[in-house]
Amino acid sequence: xxxxxxxxxxxxxxxxxxxxxxxxxxxxxxxxxxxxxxxxxxxxxxxxxxxxxxxxxxxxxxxxxxxxxxxxxxxxxxxxxxxxxxxxx
Length: 89
What we know:
With about 90 residues, the chain is mainly α. It is about 85% helix and about 0% strand.
């Protein structure tokens, strides 16, 4: 291999690494948004439960489903700790 070809290969590798780092960064942001959504969902449920237990009972299945979807659709185990707070309901 010539020096030019080696340099081209190195540049290609650097570009791929940069793309992977960008993807990881975006996935981390996505996970953070999902965790915030789960937290908001739980807080909303608790607020409703403190005011109207009947309404809270009616929305409990939807709340659990929403949290479960966030947990299983996530690409990381970071959301597991957030979703485990469902047991406090």
